[in-house]
Amino acid sequence: MVLGLSRGDRLLLVLVLSLAGVAVAADLTAEWYRAAGASWCDVSSYFSCTRVRASAYAAVSGIPTAVVGLGGFAVLAFLSATALRGRVRIGRWSVGSWILLVSAVGAAIGLGLSLLEVFVIQAVCILCVVGFALDLAILAVGTSLLRTET
After folding, report:
1. Residue 137: which residues within 8 A CB-CB, separation 6 or more?
2. Does domain 7-148 correspond to CATH entry 1.20.1440.130?
3. Distance of CA 102 to the CA centre of its chain
4. Are 77 and 18 in contact (CB under 8 A)?
5. Could you give the CA distance from residue 55 to residue 70 in angstroms, rounded to a whole number?
């Protein structure tokens, strides 16, 4: 047992973390579509969701990056819920492999966006950091799932 948890417990942990990610990404998406103005998560001029949201990097082709995160976390929640219901494989890959893949892509995107926040925008969105941390946690649990699959 990795992390001292059974496979089912780790899948449940992925589900809970994914649902928390859905909530964070949904709030970020709502922030994007609200009228311009200060966000509830603006702590200072540097820790400012509003500054990050107003940057050119907050959307790609008019699609808010938060929507991408919302989709990714929803897929992770679906995968973990599917596995909890007894499904072991989806196509040729194990559910653990899918969880690892989706969370790795999310972590890569989160890393890129975090670097943009710090070095280009020079402001950090606290909710974005929380979403990135949730994805890293899912990546760690996903790695442990893959290691124990046969």
Report:
1. 17
2. yes
3. 9
4. yes
5. 19
Q: Is the pTM of this model over 0.90?
A: yes
Q: Are 121 and 51 in contact (CB under 8 A)?
A: yes
Question: Would you list the domain boundaries of the chain?
Answer: 7-148
Residues 121 and 39: their CA atoms lie apart, in Å, by: 17
DSSP assignments along the chain, one per residue: --TT--HHHHHHHHHHHHHHHHHHHHHHHHHHHSPSS--TT--SSSB-HHHHHTSTTSEETTEEHHHHHHHHHHHHHHHHHHHHTT--EETTEEHHHHHHHHHHHHHHHHHHHHHHIIIII--B-HHHHHHHHHHHHHHHHHHHHHHH--
Amino acid at the residue 95: V
The answer to whether the CB of 97 falls within 8 A of the CB of 14 is no
User: pLDDT at position 2, please?
Assistant: 54
Q: How far apart are CA 52 and CA 44, in angstroms?
A: 12
Q: pLDDT digit string (tens) for 77-131?
A: 999 999 999 999 999 999 999 999 999 999 999 999 999 999 999 999 999 999 9
Percent of the chain exceeding pLDDT 90 equals 79
